[in-house]
Amino acid sequence: MMEQIFNRTKYMRLDANGPKIGDITIENPLIESYFTRLPVNDTTLKQDPDSLALANNGWVWAADVMRDNAGPKSKVYLRRELIVWGDCVKLRYGSGPGDSPFLWNYMTEYTQLMAKHFIGLRIDNCHSTPLHVAEHMLDAARRVQPNLCVAAELFSGDEKMDFLYCQRLGISFLIREAMQCWSTAEMSRLVHINAGRPIGSFEVDDISGADVKPQANGSLTNGTPQGQTIVHKIIPSKIHALLMDCTHDNETPVQRRDGRDTLPNSALVAMCASASGSVFGMDECYPQLIELVHEKRLYTSPYSNLKPGESLRIGPSEGTGGVKRLTNQLHAIMGMDGYDECFVHHDGEYITVHRMHPKSRKGYYLIAHTAFPGYGNGNAGFGTQTLSGTKAKLLGAWNLEVDQSWEAKQAAINDKVLRGVPSHTKDLKGVKCENHGNDTVITVPENFPPGSIALFETWIPDHSEGLDKFLTSGGREAFKNVTLIDLNAFLYRADAEERAASGGADGVYTIPGSGPLVYCGLQGWWSVLRDVVAHNDLGHPICQHLRDGPWAMDYIVNRLDKLAQRDIYHDLATPADWLRQRFEAIRKVPSFLLPRYFAMVVHTAYRAAFNRGIEQFGDNVQHGQHFLKKLAIVSCQMEGYMDNASLWPEKLVPSLAAGLPHFAQDWARCWGRDIMISMRGLLLCTGRYQEAKEHILCFASVVKHGMVPNLLGSGKLPRYNSRDSVWFFLQNIQDYYTLVPDGHAILQETVKRRFLPYFDDWFAWDDARAYSKTSSIEDVIQECLQRHATGMHFREYNAGPGIDSQMKDDGFNLDIEVDWKSGIIYGGNEHNCGTWMDKMGESAKAANKGEPGTSRDGAPVEITGLLYSTLKWCDTLKKAGHFKYDGVTMSDGTAITYAAWATKLKQSFEHAYYIPADPAQWGDYDVNPKIVNRKGIYKDVHRGKKEYRDYQLRPNFPIAMAVAPDLFNPDHAIAALEIADQVLLGPTGMSTLDPSDLEYHPDYINSDDSDNFATAKGRNYHQGPEWLWPRGFFLRALLKFDLIRTGSSHEGRVEAFQQVTERLNGCKAMIHDSPWAGLTELTNRNGTMCYDSCPTQAWSAGCIIDLFDDASKYSAELLSGDGSED
Fold first, then answer.
1. Which of 130, 152, 881, 886 has the maximal Cβ count within 10 Å?
2. Cα separations in angstroms, 490 against 367, 432, 482, 503, 571
3. What SS3 class is residue 991?
4. HSE of 196 in the Cβ direction (CA atoms, 13 Å)?
5. Any residues with CB less than 8 A from the CB of 871 and at least 6 apart, and which?
6. Helix or strand or coil: residue 356?
């Protein structure tokens, strides 16, 4: 308290900048009263005497603006922290109108009266007004004046708090003041905050799609070419300000700084991209703060003597008015015409400001030599200024001379009228503006003292507003012949793919200070630029790299030229030429503009390529959600030419990669299981029927042991170790038959066989027996089913370290049999992993080498579902006359029809796999009560060697539900799905194991070199980490059975779609945010990043597209009002 009294007394009576009120008197006591006492009269006599002392209002340095300083929890008054205003009292509003009805009603009516007569209000000392009170009053005002303009004086001391006030109150702008700055550096910061976007900023609006789209018949609409609408983006901005050079509350430079600073201070404010304002006395150099409440003298000004109709002449004048008129005119021109870009530079005593128009590139450049106390009279050693790639013309240079002597100030202060001290602006000579090529070099003379400014008009030579239009036009035409396979090379290609295709000569581009791009194609560039453009991050390393040289442009064009030389990519020559022409056009612009124009060209080409891709997909994609389009374009990431990973040993065709970048080329690219799981979504549901057919024919040609290979190896060295791949293969043939127009013809397509049908002999791909036999797809389907029906027992070809250095010897043995009592197929052993959960232990240190993380021997639930789906389909085909086989021969030599086999499965499925929620029912099912961990679910496996693993909750049963829903009791199914929804569903993927399971280890780290048996070398790959592709099957099953549950209820069916849609939000965010523009292979627990995952995986995207396909069919039923189920 003593400190507050000392500081206040010192300021009021002694400080040079204080009011110096003089002696302590009754009228001016030592300390101001914090209270106003109402006089005693007939009215006040009726009141409680304690209520007649009213607390005065005021403000507090660095106060918490959300706290009531006069409230019961504040000690501001007790500690005398309040800077008191003796002419007004603080009103007690309470927490709401109920606390003081009269006050709230009175002030509401007053506020609405003001809003009725004025279009704008200024909230004085906004930070001292309780927020809830201000909200109420302004809401009331807007009911009268909906477009009310609200200005506020707000000194919260915290930008976040300022934003909160603006957000809550709808403040149009805050009043800021240049005279609050205490140094040139602080002034520079204030100008920078209010000066607009940096010069060379990226285009605010999305004009990449403004290219003209030709009409189908080549006609025009009303004589005007019809193009796409430009997307006008709302971008984040700082809080808007009314920037005053000086306000009525503060001293002018004569009193506070150096009078000469009046000119540069006002000029700097005028160069800002905010509203600006001033106070009477600033231009006239008043030497003392005017006490507005008590001042009685009249204002005078050298500009008050103008005759009617006469305007102030621009140029030297008394005070700063003549020059300020010019700067204010330029301020208005720049504001109205959209000179939205600016560069502010602080150099010692100087601040330079360059405002520029983003289209015409015309601008104005200010050199301001500020005048703060202690500055001398020379030019302070200010060096030459170079405007790169910019021409400039001097508009004028002036300095302000001010008589700041004690005598001059006293004469003005004691005059009978209000006036300033003697001051004049004068022309300055000697400012040089020289052209050096396309650059301009500016030099100020020695006589450029504090208080001087120089103003220039600027422009960029050979720049026209048509540059933007040129850069963003012609893209659609350039890409009109580009195929989806071309787009694989143009947009994508991971480093491994590019190096494999170029013999190691080429790879992804590396940006100094940022790192390598994820793709060689334009997606790699746009993935970096997208966020740089969105946040206008001109300091990003890619921007500096573009300013430094043309290497990025050269890389893009040279790469496309090289690709276009190959016959398979000849259609890329036109896009290469389009890019070359655009890059040539922007090579001429100043380097500081290169990031902007490079991004514009890349985005235009990227968008044209993306749209060209969408045009070649089916109608469902073309007219679908943007999320579906982004999923569909993943097929272009995955499907492409790879010389060392073709589908055929002697024919180069595009192949589908499992994921990028790890599964990109050579033997690691084409995985039978991955291709068959992802192919339906990426190829069939997008309308890429020919590519889908090529993959089906390829894998049909390499069927052996009744299986398709897990690793294709172009058919040269296929490996047959996955028991589930063939069932996804057969499901794909069924889907092709169903989804493709004339899809039934696939059954009669013939393929040359890599191995002899029904024989297990191995021979090289160039052996005379290879491809010597021919089979139809119909025959291949039959062979797969027959081989399984008979049973298979074989050892992998070349078993041993040559094909798998981790597996134990027994793991190379495959045994598959049908239990004909149930019709269920069983296979595998505890030393191999024949399903997608195929991680083999690799750590000798942890003793898990050769120990599968998830063996799943027995009868995995998804294989049983896929088997049933195939059997039911074949039976349907036979009855329709489209399939010549009606069944198979069992191992005992007797025949069984497909219908009979399917019936066995259906009759046994629930008994074998379901674990009832009610233990009393366990006796009716194949349940071991001692092992059950979770009830009301479906087993993951039936009759595995490690029985406890049968009962583990994993995300595999929804696969069976999606392809064979009639195997399941609908009530059991929806309940099990609800459990999976609660237990397994993560933000983007599905946990591969129940978190309550003792084997649950959700964080996959392949480099883990610990001695932990469960996790070392990533053995827990499928023991808890959250994989994305099962989510597609889960949501397909959830939608299917939820629609069954709701029946014909329209509201229930709509809710079923909403529930599924909500569960896609994580995937939508991922594909938007990922620089790979895809969905990752897996995440660790709760959706956290897994750094060993492929960041874009074929089946992750493909299975979500499958969901969209299902949903489109169900929604058609919903719209038609048909609630029946097929």
1. 152
2. 47, 50, 9, 18, 11
3. strand
4. 27
5. 785, 898, 899, 901, 902, 905
6. strand
Full 3-state SS string of 561-607: HHHHCCHHHHHHHHHHHHHHHHHHHHCCCCHHHHHHHHHHHHHHHHH
- For residue 302, the 8-state DSSP code is T
Copy the structure tokens of residue 263: 């000119």
CA nearest neighbour of 633 among 601, 575, 572, 681: 681
Contact by Cβ (8 Å): 510, 516: yes
Assign 947 to helix, strand or coil: helix
**Residues 432-456: tens digit of each pLDDT:** 999 998 899 999 999 999 999 999 9
Out of 15, 124, 415, 1009, the active site residue is: 124
Instruction: Determine the Cα–Cα distance for residues 925 and 928; give it in Å rounded to an integer.
Output: 9
When mean pLDDT is compared across 236-245, 584-593, 846-855, 857-866, the lowest value belongs to: 236-245
Alpha-helical segments (H) within 816-855? none
Q: Are 422 and 402 in contact (CB under 8 A)?
A: yes
CA 375 and chain centroid, separation: 49
Q: What confidence tens digit (pLDDT) does each residue in 282-311 have?
A: 999 999 888 877 788 998 888 877 777 777
* Helices 1050-1062, 1098-1120: inter-axial angle, 10-degree rounding: 160
pLDDT digits (tens, 9 = 90+) for 557-570: 999 999 999 999 99
Q: Does 461 sit behind a cis peptide bond, omega within 30 degrees of 0 on the bond before it?
A: no
Q: How far apart are CA 169 and CA 661, in angstroms?
A: 50
Q: Report how far residue 141's alpha carbon sits from residue 107's, in angstroms, rounded to the nearest whole number.
A: 11
Overall pTM surpassing 0.70 (yes/no): yes
Max Cα-Cα span within the chain: 126
Angle of helix 672-679 versus helix 725-739 axis, rounded to 10:
30
Annotated catalytic residue 249 = yes
In order, the DSSP letters of 360-428 are T--EEEEEEE---TT--SS-TT---EEETT-EEEEEEEEEEEE---HHHHHHHHTSSSB----EEEEE-
How big is the chain, counted in residues?
A: 1126
For 782-817, give the secondary structure using H, E and C.
Answer: HHHHHHHHHCEEEECCCCCCCCCCCCCHHHHEEEEE
What is the DSSP code string of 1026-1078? EESHHHHHHHHHHHHHHHHHHTT-HHHHHHHHHHHHHTTHHHHHHHHH-TTSS
3-state class of 733 per DSSP?
A: helix
Amino acid at residue number 867: L
Phi, psi of 806 (to 5 degrees): -105, -30
Sheet-wide strand order for 391-402: 197-198, 341-347, 350-356, 363-369, 452-459, 391-402, 423-427
Residues 678 and 1099: beta-carbon distance below 8 Å = yes
The tens digit of pLDDT for each residue in 913-961 reads 999 999 999 999 999 999 999 999 999 999 999 999 999 999 999 999 9
User: What's the Rg (C-alpha) of the chain?
Assistant: 39
Cβ distance 57 to 90 under 8 Å? yes
Residue 327 φ/ψ, nearest 5 degrees = -65, -35
Q: Is the peptide bond before 718 cis (omega within 30 degrees of 0)?
A: no
Pairing of strands 990-991, 1026-1027: antiparallel
Say whether 127 is catalytic. yes
Residue 221 has pLDDT above 50, yes or no: no
Structural contact between residues 450 and 349, judged by C-beta atoms closer than 8 angstroms: yes
Contact 479, 608 (CB under 8 A): yes
Contacts of 1010 (CB under 8 A, 6+ apart): 845, 846, 1016
Closest CA relative to residue 438, chosen from 510, 480, 386: 386
Q: Which two tokens stand for residue 463?
A: 């720049």
Which entry of 64, 206, 249, 537 is annotated as an active-site residue?
249
Side-chain half-sphere exposure of 663, counting CA atoms within 13 A = 27
Please answer whether residues 379 and 446 qualify as being in contact, where contact means their C-beta atoms are separated by less than 8 angstroms: yes
498 HSE (CA, 13 A, CB side) = 25
Which amino acid appears at position 152 of this protein?
A
Per the structure block, which two tokens stand in for 715? 């058919």
